[in-house]
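Summary for the steering committee. One of the milestones for this cycle was to obtain a three-dimensional model of the protein with zinc ion bound, which we needed before selecting residues for the alanine scan. The sequence and ligand used are listed below.
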Amino acid sequence: MFFEKKYCPTCKKYDRKFRKLEGREWTVVEQRHRGRTDLWRCTSAGCRFYQPAHNQRDGARLPEEFRNPAAEPAE
Ligand SMILES: [Zn+2]
């Protein structure tokens, strides 16, 4: 499940693809987002931005270790 063509304030681009957080990502969100089930993150290389669905202004960044890899993994 994805949001496509979304604006990302970290990338400063309007064509970003977002996906719902997965696995351990849910455990490292900021305190105010704990317990939510509607958090989405930007999938672009080098980005860590996430936000609650429909509330971009409440977005934040995941810890450094959850930064997207610089290059897309081979499939
Ligand atoms: Zn981004």
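Key point for the committee: Residues 2-66 form one domain.
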